[in-house]
Write a structure and sequence with these properties.
Elements lengths: L16 H10 L15 E5 L14 H16 L3 E6 L3 E8 L2 E8 L8 E9 L4 E11 L2 E7 L14 H20 L6 E5 L4 H13 L4 H10 L1 E5 L9 E3 H7 L7 H8 L6 E3 L1 H7 L2 E4 L2 H6 L13 E2 L6 H4 L2 H9 L14 H6 L3 H19 L17 E6 L15 H10 L2 E6 L7 H15 L2 H6 E4 L4 H10 L2 E4 L11 H7 L3 E4 L14 E2 L5 H18 L3 H19 L1 H12 L1
Parallel strand pairs: 1-2, 1-8, 2-7, 8-9, 9-12, 12-13, 14-15, 14-17, 15-16, 17-18, 18-19
Antiparallel strand pairs: 3-4, 5-6, 6-7, 10-11
Helix pairs in contact: 3-4, 4-5, 13-17, 18-20
């Protein structure tokens, strides 16, 4: 595998009308193709996309999901447009003298196969900003991006800042103009989090400005807009002030009625974008069953908003070892749509042997080490994990609620587990710029490792985490650790990649993991963090010993796959969205 590159097409999309119709029949919507077409596609707005092969690097799971939605749409020939910024600058991280250094690289869309279409303009109170519209067609799917030299990097500026609002306004109003420019009208708009809210406002404004009655336009926009929420607590959102809207938002709205409608959403001169978003979108989805139940969002009247559960999924053919995907298809575990075989799925899973699991994971370990050839650890050294070593990993955003430092609460105990089981531990993730609390915790953890001779030998921190490294760890690790504080993870998808790649999951019962009972994986439980830490260590010991015991290994891998492989499937996610939308 080439450095910093993931082959984006390791699958064959559906090749005929008959195959496409068979997929739609499989989701019990035989006439769905009459609602979606090349000129009236499924339009997906997102501020973040994580797709390095196409030159766009996101910040975490929100962007990974967006990229996987497009990949699944391409594979299944769903007419699909992903509207997103192309950021001209990209942030990276490296270690120098045991300190993490942030730096930036410039990105040129011409280097990634994008074509320039034309320019559109958005307005501020004092000037106009010209945005380049670029596109890239991939089968039935398309990237449609807006960009300009001063657009900045993803999430540049503080939350609630003028520049952040400018980026969101540019994506919404500029992206909607771009859609019209290329001759498309959305059959449905999916808003991937509230940062994309202005796309729905642009559509509402167009309808009203074209002569539709305001209330009819609201009803029409609502019925054709889906808001997907990824954040459990509304209070965590950024707030914007009325003066900011006067500067950046209102100049782009032609209709006085739409301006008045939006002005009414302010309370004491401040607005949270979720308030008008849940009003303009009749369809609202949470990204796991637990998330849909507990998401704490309210409309302007204070009434709690109900969310439909559509659990996130992954594009299996991007994130699963090709040899494992071939095994799943050849042995009747998955059908041609990458959905569990309807009749004999569990029986097929029960036939997966421990020797097959170990053989396939050995191939995955080799792929991981190929990726690690281009990486260095906290000391600037290359990392190579021996084929016969057991590997634990933590590979997620470094935010407080995910608790990446939990395994280091008792360094001696962790060291003993690693040494006694010939195990290594890879710690990989990104601290968002400006998160001084997590940066300090990361530095403290690295010093704990550095001061312990066993941990220094067996624990490897890999900076500049990205999707290539995430893929390699899913392929080559034996067991993955997922430690969010219960009640704070909306879904997560890293654990899906681990299970689909026949790894042993050690996790708290939160997010999408909680879609199924907790006895389907190695569960971390406890009434407080001390109990959870002790339970984590016990489950690490169970995982390491199970790998060398045929019956135990088969027991846990079979349970995980039977419980979660359908949930992991991006084809299942697309099916659920299409059923909900139409």
């Amino acid at each position: 595998m080439e450095e910093n590159n993931i082959d984006p097409v390791i699958y064959h999309p559906l090749e005929s009308v008959e195959e496409v119709e068979e997929y739609y029949q499989a989701i019990k919507r035989e006439r769905l193709t009459h609602k979606l077409s090349a000129s009236r596609p499924y339009c997906y707005w997102t501020i973040e996309t994580y797709d390095k092969s196409n030159g766009i690097r996101g910040g975490g799971g929100l962007g990974v999901l967006a990229a996987d939605m497009r990949r699944v749409a391409e594979q299944l020939q769903v007419p699909f447009v992903l509207v997103t910024p192309f950021y001209p600058w990209e942030s990276h991280q490296k270690m120098q003298n045991m300190e993490q250094i942030d730096y930036h690289e410039e990105r040129n869309y011409h280097n990634f196969g994008f074509n320039f279409v034309d320019t559109v303009q958005i307005k501020t109170a004092t000037s106009a900003v010209e945005l380049d519209v670029i596109e890239k067609q991939l089968g039935s799917s398309r990237f449609l991006c807006i960009t300009e030299p001063n657009f900045g990097e993803l999430y540049s500026g503080e939350s609630g800042s003028d520049h952040r609002l400018y980026q969101e306004v540019a994506l919404g109003f500029g992206g909607y103009q771009a859609l019209k420019m290329v001759g498309l009208r959305p059959a449905v708009i999916q808003l991937n989090e509230v940062a994309t809210f202005f796309a729905a406002v642009a559509r509402l404004d167009e309808l009203v400005s074209s002569g539709m009655d305001f209330y009819e336009a609201v009803v029409y926009t609502r019925k054709h807009t889906l808001y997907t929420n990824h954040t459990l607590v509304q209070a965590a959102e950024a707030t914007f002030h009325y003066k900011q809207f006067e500067q950046y938002v209102f100049p782009n709205i032609k209709s006085v009625a739409v301006q008045r409608w939006l002005s009414d959403k302010f309370t004491n001169g401040v607005i949270r974008l979720s308030t008008p978003t849940v009003e303009i979108a009749e369809l609202r989805s949470g990204v796991s069953k637990l998330h849909a139940r507990v998401a704490n969002y309210h409309d302007i009247n204070g009434s709690k908003i109900k969310f439909k559960s559509v659990t996130n999924g992954i594009h299996l053919r991007t994130w699963v070892l090709p040899e494992i995907m071939t095994y799943y298809h050849d042995h009747g575990v998955l059908d041609r749509f990458d959905l569990p075989s309807s009749h004999d799925f569990e029986e097929a899973v029960d036939k997966i042997s421990a020797s097959d699991i170990r053989r396939l994971k050995t191939i995955g370990r080799k792929r991981l080490n190929e990726i690690l050839e281009h990486r260095t650890d906290q000391y600037g050294n290359k990392v190579h994990i021996p084929e016969d070593a057991f590997l634990f990993d933590f590979k997620r955003r470094f935010v407080d609620y995910k608790r990446p430092t939990l395994p280091f609460n008792d360094p001696d105990r962790l060291a003993r587990i690693l040494e006694e089981n010939n195990a290594h531990y890879i710690l990989a993730g990104r601290v968002h710029m400006g998160d001084s609390t997590m940066f300090a915790k990361l530095m403290s953890t690295l010093h704990i490792i550095d001061n312990h001779p066993i941990l220094k030998e067996r624990v490897h921190y890999l900076p500049d985490y990205d999707e290539e490294l995430g893929l390699g760890l899913s392929l080559g690790a034996n067991s993955s650790i997922n430690t969010p504080i219960v009640g704070l993870e909306a879904c997560g998808t890293s654990w899906m990649k681990d299970i689909a790649n026949m790894g042993l999951l050690i996790s708290t019962h939160d997010g999408g993991v909680a879609d199924m009972p907790s006895d389907n994986y190695l569960t971390i439980e406890g009434k407080n963090e001390k109990q959870e830490t002790e339970n984590l260590y016990r489950q690490m010991e169970v995982a390491a010993k199970a790998w060398n015991n045929d019956s135990e290994l088969e027991y846990w891998i079979h349970k995980e796959l039977k419980a979660y492989l359908d949930i992991c499937s991006g084809s299942r996610m697309m099916r659920d969205y299409l059923n909900y939308l139409f």
